[in-house]
Amino acid sequence: MELHEVMQFLAEKGSDQTKKIWMKHGAREPFFGTKVADLKVLLKKIKQDHQLALQLYDTGNSDAMYLAGLLCDAKQFTPEVLNAWVEKAYWYMISDFTVAGAAAESNYAVMMAKQWINSGKEFVASAGWSAYSGYISITPNEKLDIPEIEHLLEQVASTIHQEQNRVRQSMNHFVIAVGSYIPELTEKCKLLGKSIGKVTVDMGGTSCKVPDSKEYIEKVEKMGNLGKKRKRAYC
Asked: Considering the entire predicted model, what is its pTM?
């Protein structure tokens, strides 16, 4: 499909109700308010088209930017393009899902995640933590740098409540990811979750809540899913 055809589809599937919901979460014009379910219908039709993904992301339209993450071939990304993408990610659906997913599946996952985590920019740092979480979720544990991950857990423990809004959320999810996918660190993450306690994040007046990391990991444990990896970092 050509870019104009995709944009026409997004416009036709957009709704004011969905726009209102996304705007509460941080989206802003231009966008159509296309449901993620409709984006995935289009994904099944197109499958993968990296050049189209790049064009969609460059439109600055939030619906198109999210779709770009679904259509892209992460292995084709360079650090330069990933940095360009993260700089344009102005709200968490793009930073923590689209950009983080692309980085997590790229050949530069850890490098980009560590670089972004240390950024002073809210959505860049949030993308960094989310990218590392995504990388952990799809990577065999024997290939992970466990000491480095433990160091990052220490960083979470000492700074999470002082971090910027969405960074707090992605750091909390990092604890959940480590505790869920790396069994040797599960107990450590549960203790960390207990010490962290409630993580407060402004959700824009929506009903969304930040999960308790200890309770979440325990649910994964009870289901017998500790250490079970995902095929994709994307949702």
From this structure: 0.96
Locus of tokens 């189209």: 52
The C-alpha atoms of residue 78 and residue 229 are separated, in whole angstroms, by: 25
Q: How high does pLDDT run on average in the chain?
A: 96
Q: How far apart are CA 177 and CA 233, in angstroms?
A: 11
The residue ranges of every structural domain in the chain are: 1-72, 90-235
Range 164-168, long-range pairs (CB < 8 A, 24+ positions): 164/122, 164/125, 164/126, 165/122, 165/201, 165/202, 166/92, 166/95, 166/96, 166/122, 166/123, 166/126, 166/201, 167/122, 167/125, 167/126, 167/129, 168/199, 168/200, 168/201, 168/210
Distance of CA 25 to the CA centre of its chain: 15
- 150-203 tens-digit pLDDT: 999 999 999 999 999 999 999 999 999 999 999 999 999 999 999 999 999 998
Token look-up 């750091």 returns 171
Which pLDDT score is estimated for 235? 65
For residues 53 and 65, the answer to whether their CB atoms sit within 8 Å is no
